[in-house]
Amino acid sequence: MKQIPSPNLPPIERLRQVMASLRDPDGGCPWDIEQSFETIAPYTIEEAYEVADAITEGDMPHLEEELGDLLLQVMYHTQIGQEAGHFDFDSVAHAITEKMIRRHPHVFGPDNVADAETQTLNWEAQKAQERARKAAESDVRQSALDGVSSAFPALMRAVKLQKRAGRVGFDWPEVDQVFHKLEEEIAEVRAELKGDAKERDPERIEDEIGDLLFVCVNLARKLDIDPESALRRCNRKFETRFRAVESMLEEETGRFPEQAELDELEALWQRAKRFDKT
Length: 278
Prior knowledge:
Blueprint: H1 11-23, H2 30-34, H3 37-57, H4 60-83, H5 89-102, H6 105-108, H7 116-136, H8 154-167, H9 175-192, H10 202-222, H11 227-253, H12 262-275
């Protein structure tokens, strides 16, 4: 049996000792011992989304709990890194501390920043300088898109790719141009759906739907809307309305959606939409 770390320790050190004990081949947890960066990564993503959900709900006790779960993920990865001799929690904390100091010369240096927008531009300039420095140290030609992780959720990655391309001038200057492209992509989806359904090419349809979604992301970006947040909000709205449809249908008729006609469900949906405004 492992000794429980002293409650008198600083909380972060106590957590480190707990994680080390869980990963200890001698008496640790069999499941925790078997994990790797790759197997833990999906949990890290999941916990980040749960943090976002708690923020959206405004549930502070839940947010506190979810932040702890996310911190555990950081501790997990740093413990695995330490065991492999790559890095540890202290080196990770040191690296991010130095990066924050370097990217905030207006706080830790003589520079002045007028507002948040100016700071965002300065932040991006700092990141560009860091990429340029890495490029100078490498023999490989660097792309403006380097560093945009393929592990990001698709909507988030689309935004980041578009922003990177936009920094080097590959971007529509006006939002109306995005609308024209959106109409073009809708027409291309329609074109793929013409004719006999049996002769349709699923891969081409998927490509065209992907192009359509990519332009929708671009439209959101041009309007300073985060598409991930917009879709999450839409999901919540849809869920609330559909649950209202289910409740009204059952209360008024004793039936469930699968027992109703589409016209009836649509009428209830319109009633549920009115609840949004009350």
